[in-house]
Amino acid sequence: MPSKTIAIASDHGGFELKTELKKYLMETGYTVLDLGSDSLESVDYPDFGYALAGAMKEGKAKLGVLICGSGIGISIAANRHSEIRAALVHDALTARLSRQHNDANVICFGGRTIGPEVARDCLNIFLETKFEDGGRHSRRVNKLSDPK
Ligand code: RB5
Predict the structure, then answer these.
(1) Residue 145 confidence class, pLDDT cut points 50, 70, 90
(2) pTM listed for this prediction
(3) Does residue 75 line the site of ligand 1, with CB under 6 A?
(4) What residue segments make up the domains of the chain, in order of their start?
């Protein structure tokens, strides 16, 4: 198992899937750092994307999970932080490629666009797949940290 602590956050649109994935991660043996939200009450997705990025920057977790209604807003929010590579994932292939090619450290889901079983499958793949370090993918990922 790679990193034992996984940070997780969502807005109201992702709250139900967050609850499911948090339970699943804990049952699988991970420690979960839950940064909210805590209910279906309407909140602003940037607050939760930023909270997770901040926690990862402080070293509280190496990997994270973010969920909003579509997965779009919260992934944009997280990707405004240079140390975050957040990938909006829809299926097993995008989950696998996010790790192999992009060294993604945050997986994002749309709580209104993906079912819990597919999301669990994607999350497993994300957690178990290694980055294809060393060649063209490293060169490209390094460029992400140094935008022109
Ligand atoms: C909230 O209604 C919704 O806009 C949000 O969860 C997300 O989909 C934004 O990208």
Answers:
(1) confident
(2) 0.96
(3) no
(4) 5-145
HEC-encoded secondary structure of the chain: CCCCEEEEEECHHHHHHHHHHHHHHHHHCCEEEECCCCCCCCCCHHHHHHHHHHHHHCCCCCEEEEEECCCHHHHHHHCCCCCCCEEECCCHHHHHHHHHCCCCCEEEEECCCCCHHHHHHHHHHHHHCCCCCCCHHHHHHHHHCCCC
Active site members: 68, 101
Class of domain 5-145: alpha beta
Q: Tell me how far the alpha carbon of residue 75 lies from the centroid of ligand 1, in angstroms.
A: 11
Residue 76 Cβ contacting ligand 1 at under 6 Å: no
What's the pLDDT score for residue 2?
Answer: 47
How far apart are the CA of 68 and the centre of ligand 1, in A? 6
pLDDT digits (tens, 9 = 90+) for 54-96: 999 999 999 999 999 999 999 999 999 999 999 999 999 999 9
Closest CA to 63 of 103, 27, 17, 29: 103
